[in-house]
Recover the amino acids of this structure.
């Protein structure tokens, strides 16, 4: 932020930088797997998770695994990863999710996500949004 000294000359009196730890957006891909569960129950659980966690972009699922992709706002990668690693466990009972374990996690910043898409590699944009079978 720049402030003017008030003399009408337009001289700069001080310059202050933005705080270094402002929240940023992180693209998260969380992979879970475990014992087979009935597909309708997996779908209902993921739909409830999407309702409970409004930034969920898309979920893909099968009887024994799922992939969840969403945007998370966090100060840094460590915070975004910690939130992502708690997501499945914290919502397991409220969303009636299968007792699967987390088997994969990718957290990238917004710039990296868009750079990958622009260069034609990396995860495809999360479309269509919602819960879908693999």
């Amino acid at each position: 932020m720049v402030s003017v000294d008030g003399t009408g000359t337009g001289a700069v009196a001080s310059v202050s930088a933005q705080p270094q730890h402002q929240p940023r957006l992180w693209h998260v891909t969380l992979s879970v797997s475990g014992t087979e569960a009935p597909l309708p129950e997996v779908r209902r659980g993921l739909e409830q998770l999407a309702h409970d966690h409004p930034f969920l972009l898309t979920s893909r699922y099968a009887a024994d695994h799922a992939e969840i992709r969403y945007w998370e706002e966090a100060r840094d990668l460590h915070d975004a990863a910690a939130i992502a690693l708690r997501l499945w466990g914290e919502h397991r009972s409220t969303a009636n999710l299968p007792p699967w374990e987390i088997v994969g996690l990718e957290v990238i910043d917004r710039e990296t996500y868009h750079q990958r898409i622009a260069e034609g590699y990396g995860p495809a944009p999360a479309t269509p949004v919602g819960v879908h079978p693999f």
